[in-house]
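agent> Task received from the user: take the single chain below, predict its 3D structure, and emit structure tokens. No templates, no multimer pairing.
agent> Plan: (1) validate residues, (2) run structure prediction, (3) serialize to tokens, (4) report one or two observations.
agent> Step 1 OK, no nonstandard residues flagged.
tool_call: predict_structure(input=
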Amino acid sequence: MSALLDFVFPSKCVVCERPPQLVCSGCLPTPRPQSELLTGYRLGYALGLEGAAEKLITGYKDRSKLALASNLAGYLDLAIGQHPGEPVKFLVPPSSQKNFARRGYNPVELICSKSVQLRSLKRVRARSIKLTLDQRGLSAKDRRENLEGAFEVESGYGSLLIVDDVVTTGATALSLASASAAAGYEVAGICVVARRISPSQTREFKKA
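)
tool_result: status=success, residues=208
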């Protein structure tokens, strides 16, 4: 419904706040696809989470501008292109009950549904098996402890790509990677639209 309303009734740009487009072509952040190593896993991303990129993702997730999913899927496809292998399956983090109730959808699932790169891949399901705290405001160490053992992945085999919209400390992705390996998969890497990193976290990331 939100996407339909944005199409019928012109909206303000989520970046510059000027009508009539949901995002002006000139406001779309320039992609800079990169890959880094996150605790042994290759992490691919297309944007740094700042400026226009942050406004684009915030508009999508917090203001329910669902039509932006197609734009974000384009960035995700560029990030997936940073992985040299050809995974046959992918996995997205399950939404918490609170977030799903608030939004009515899983934002990462919707982005993935628009992705050209993921179109031919089989999706593997994961579920939360542990009550966790809201990650916002937690330190990197607390985030890892909060999500340790938080997920269960359906059993299977083959090369698997973990997909998310944003990575900060990598706690969610690493917990999913651990659960995926335990379920029998070979984790090919982690792929996100954008990554946020603070100076205190730079030691955990290395150029791939």
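agent> Step 4: summary for the user.
Residues 136 and 143 are 9 Å apart (CA to CA).
agent> Done.
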